[in-house]
Amino acid sequence: MHPTSHRPRTPDLAPRFIQSSASEYIELFVGVGASRVRDIFKQAKEKAPCIVFIDEIDAIGRQRGAGMGGGNDEREQTLNQILTEMDGFEGNSGVIVVAATNRSDILDSALLRPGRFDRRVQVALPDVQGREEILKVHVKNKKLAENITLTDIAKRTAGFSGADLENLMNESAILTARRNKKAITMDEINDATDRVIAGLEGRSLTDNASKKLIAYHEAGHAIVGTLLPYHDPVNKVTLIPRGQAKGLTWFTPGEDQSLISAAMLKARIAGALGGRAAEQLVFGSGQVTTGAGGDLQQVERMARSMVTQFGMSEVGSIAIDDGGFMGPSYSEDLSKKIDEAIKHISDECYLNALTILMKNRECLDRVADELCELETMTGDRLKEIVAEYTEIPEKLAAV
């Protein structure tokens, strides 16, 4: 007999997997959490090679010593036990610990030092290819119309997370069932996208005066956004209320929103102020409404970030801490400069929006009239109308 036939059978070296949530370790009785940690790592050693996955580790991994009375509580004892198991005197060869959290900023520094969680993977929002792969998972039990491709849906859902995409397809399926259709069409997907972004659809406006005012407001957003080269392109304009909004103008952001230039931020501020500018231009300063309330809050946030976080103003290339709940920690003189810089950015962008609408008043009237009649306008139709009156600039990248 050949000698190699007496060799022992090679064991299965595929790694085992143990999953747990950090909240399972937190109990009223001191020592229970640490005991559970020891039990899990004991199982992992017996099954090595093994992967131990701890979800929401911030439940027990918060910075130590931050509580009252020294913070010697059950949570800290559990954390100490995890630290010991991960890098103590006993070697845990063959055991890999993986954890997930969305609050990495509050984790204890001992958890993050080399030898423990020394590799960090930032899970960002999926790109168009990632969204397409995620959609493949969520349409396995759903029937799509023949003319729909997942690539088209992925391109129309920039900025969506995996949970948003799951919600989108579930809402699309519900709408399909309500409309007694056999397959999901692009109409259901578009309506579901609107619902995921902006909320439930409300009743159409019946008051002609209010409808006309909102039409001019949304047309102002759309035209200013279309004619600014650094602004995101318009996807759709509608007068159908959703959530708290009486009308909405959707823009399609680019895939990469991690680097945004000052020109793009100012374009977005001007676009947000386009609605108020249209109201003032058409109805006069005395007839402007509260419809721009949300727009003005958005403008203030963007302008303040430009001044205090990104160094995009006369205040200087500095990042200023707002002090959190303790209030600002900078001088009154600097506070005055910040307020003046924010107002300057807002006034400059508002004047830009008003100038654009004054030069294109006929186009503004045309878009508002069609909105009053049809209530919804696509971005392609908007560009067709605007192109009849003026040249549309090519959209430029953020950087």
Automatic annotation (TrEMBL):
<keyword id="KW-0793">Thylakoid</keyword>
<keyword id="KW-0482">Metalloprotease</keyword>
<keyword id="KW-1133">Transmembrane helix</keyword>
<feature type="domain" description="AAA ATPase AAA+ lid">
    <location>
        <begin position="148"/>
        <end position="190"/>
    </location>
</feature>
<keyword id="KW-0067">ATP-binding</keyword>
<feature type="domain" description="ATPase AAA-type core">
    <location>
        <begin position="16"/>
        <end position="123"/>
    </location>
</feature>
<comment type="similarity">
    <text>In the C-terminal section; belongs to the peptidase M41 family.</text>
</comment>
<dbReference type="Pfam" id="PF17862">
    <property type="entry name" value="AAA_lid_3"/>
</dbReference>
<keyword id="KW-0547">Nucleotide-binding</keyword>
<dbReference type="InterPro" id="IPR041569">
    <property type="entry name" value="AAA_lid_3"/>
</dbReference>
<dbReference type="InterPro" id="IPR000642">
    <property type="entry name" value="Peptidase_M41"/>
</dbReference>
<dbReference type="Pfam" id="PF00004">
    <property type="entry name" value="AAA"/>
</dbReference>
<protein>
    <submittedName>
        <fullName>ATP-dependent zinc metalloprotease FtsH</fullName>
    </submittedName>
</protein>
<comment type="similarity">
    <text>Belongs to the AAA ATPase family.</text>
</comment>
<dbReference type="Pfam" id="PF01434">
    <property type="entry name" value="Peptidase_M41"/>
</dbReference>
<keyword id="KW-0645">Protease</keyword>
<keyword id="KW-0812">Transmembrane</keyword>
<dbReference type="InterPro" id="IPR037219">
    <property type="entry name" value="Peptidase_M41-like"/>
</dbReference>
<dbReference type="InterPro" id="IPR003959">
    <property type="entry name" value="ATPase_AAA_core"/>
</dbReference>
<dbReference type="InterPro" id="IPR027417">
    <property type="entry name" value="P-loop_NTPase"/>
</dbReference>
<keyword id="KW-0378">Hydrolase</keyword>
<keyword id="KW-0472">Membrane</keyword>
<feature type="domain" description="Peptidase M41">
    <location>
        <begin position="206"/>
        <end position="385"/>
    </location>
</feature>
<dbReference type="InterPro" id="IPR003960">
    <property type="entry name" value="ATPase_AAA_CS"/>
</dbReference>
<dbReference type="GO" id="GO:0008237">
    <property type="term" value="F:metallopeptidase activity"/>
</dbReference>
